[in-house]
Amino acid sequence: SFTMNIYLFVYDLMQFCGHSWIFTNMIIRFMTFGKDSLADTFYSIGLVMRLCQLLSVLEILHILIGIDKSRLLPRFLQITERIIVLFVVINSQEEVQGKYVVCVLFFLWNLLDVIRYTYNMLARMGIYYLPLTWLNFSLCILLYPLSVLAKGFAICVSLPYFESFGTYSIKLPFPLAFSIYFPYVLKMYLLVLFIGMCFIIQNLFSERKAHLGTGNIKNKRS
């Protein structure tokens, strides 16, 4: 148990460092170059962003083997949403990478993750700082729907490019005569994305109640 706690602390520390670097880099670039920095956000921080998101797949494994007590389905949905939008939609279409929505999406993701991994690291050591706890379980309720809207907008912006270039669209030869038109897949995924948002928001409210209930706050203070 102690070894697993150390491992989880190191994992949270690595994620905190990665997302803090991205978040700080975005702010400094915006303060230095203004709006010009928004168009090349992906080119400047995209590699680190992809590494952090790939690393987050481990969180599903942590839940499956029982060292993380979070609920599997909400965390699985949140991670797969990011993986699909980042690697399938943004990374595959260079024309989308320069859109302002990518900067907005990365800002929301990293703001949430810097707070979440800071909270997790302190929790591993048994430290519960009430303002940080409130921020971690309250801000996500506001920012997560905004991030879903940004994901949806990024998908809509990418559709014309998937239609023009035929990326990921597959047409099987005779006798199968079966084809997959990827823009239709993305449109169906938009519906799944917003249905999943309702489920995840409900889970976020449950987590907030569990961690910020009067009894829990008193116990953590003591």
TrEMBL record:
GO annotation, cellular component aspect: endoplasmic reticulum membrane
Residues passing through the membrane, by range: 7-30, 42-65, 127-160, 180-201
Location relative to the cell: Endoplasmic reticulum membrane; Membrane
GO biological process: one example: fatty acid elongation
Pathway where this protein functions: Lipid metabolism; fatty acid biosynthesis
Keyword hit for Ligase: no
Membrane topology: Multi-pass membrane protein
Chief localization: endoplasmic reticulum
Entry keyword Membrane: yes
Family of the protein in this entry: Belongs to the very long-chain fatty acids dehydratase HACD family.
Function: Catalyzes the third of the four reactions of the long-chain fatty acids elongation cycle. This endoplasmic reticulum-bound enzymatic process, allows the addition of two carbons to the chain of long- and very long-chain fatty acids/VLCFAs per cycle. This enzyme catalyzes the dehydration of the 3-hydroxyacyl-CoA intermediate into trans-2,3-enoyl-CoA, within each cycle of fatty acid elongation. Thereby, it participates to the production of VLCFAs of different chain lengths that are involved in multiple biological processes as precursors of membrane lipids and lipid mediators.
Protein name: Very-long-chain (3R)-3-hydroxyacyl-CoA dehydratase
